[in-house]
Amino acid sequence: MLRKAYEVALDNIDEGLIIVDGEGRIVYLNQVQLEFDELKMKEINGRYTWDVYQFNREISTLLKVLETGQSFGDYVHYYITNGGQYVRVTGNNFPVTIDGKVVGAVAVYRNLKKSEEMVGKIIELQKKLHQHQMEQGMASFDTGSKKKYYTFDDILGESEHIQEALSWARRAAVTESPVLLLGETGTGKEMFAQSIHAASNRSKNPFIAINCAAIPESLLEGILFGSVKGVYTGANDHKGLFEEADTGTLFLDEINSMSLNLQSKLLRVLEERKVRRLGGKTEIPVDVRLISSCNLEPNREITSQLRSDLFFRLAVVTIKIPPLRIRRNDIKLLVEYYINYFNELFGKKICAVSPKIEKFLKDYSWPGNVRQLKHWVECAMNLVPENENILDENYTPKEDHIFNFNNNKPQEKIEDGPYGIKYRDIVNQIKEQECIKIKEMLERHKGNITKAAHEMGMSRQSLLYRLRKYGMK
Questions:
Q1: How far apart are CA 63 and CA 260, in angstroms?
Q2: Structure confidence by residue, pLDDT tens digits, 321-357
């Protein structure tokens, strides 16, 4: 009964499954894999996988797992099914051990057709939304503005650090050189990217932006470079973002999250100014100005996440966007701007902030930078009554332990609630606890990142990002 239950469960999951014995002979394929490859279990039972799928024995990933006893994956695999169809899958292989001896292996495959169709739809929706926003002037906070993109005038700040960044960006805008924007989360990297595009001679041409960390590695290549019909089941001719951005600007946000393999392909495109679609044989010329960004220091990026040759190719012009904590003199200007904006949006009449609020706003470190400041002002403006004209501590977010107005020092010991430690200590403890949890999961699964990520309820890519972020090996 239990065996039958296992078979029913395995036949009704989304992934294809292949199980082989210690010699590489097929023991079991679930119904998903059989239908996908157009095979019948009675015809392949006991045969070697390389004979069934007609490939060289030496490149068998399952055989590699049997020989080493180590898991293998996450990888992208192309092959031809029994029915003659080209397919593209992601695969993970795992050893089966009994009493310390490898007695078989399991391969888990996911067809990328549905995932890529979904991502394609998402990209199309993002493009339509972006176009609608541009038409409505959403990119600017100024009511009634019909500007297509942020411009340098939208970037507020009088401090030396922000003015230096703006000066560099304005000079870079009139050239064709690649630009690398370095800055923490919330400092306004895309505002700078759009402003550079808007001030360039490409301003009337496309501006395409994509967050490299938001797209799975297995799909990002096709999204960037496109694909041709037949490269995998259901694939059609599809333009990549390089072609979409032709004659314009392509902004690659969080480029440090891109895999090393994809980085090498990106480097080739930048050097040759030609792109080859996934599965294609011809190279397509592209004229694209590339702007990229990352949120870590460049020295750390070179050594841990970015190929050095790609870094120097991207960082012809490097612009450091300062965090809000080192441009505190701009906080008052930004707060006044956001108050005026939300006054009009919410129908409020706030004309000033209290001295106590002003001091706390200026003293706080703002780890989320300008974005966090904007969201805090928006929250406070939701709380203040319509008949009030001064924003004071009575109308600030009460549950946000960042601001304790009964204490003269922000981030010092919090008297109310269970938090009897400094704010920075809370952040450090969160990081420490996460590192301990990651280490514990990796030890439990003997270094297998895929299994550890699954148990932690996150994607493999997210766990890899945290390993790089915390410098864990």
A1: 25
A2: 999 999 999 999 999 999 999 999 888 989 988 888 8
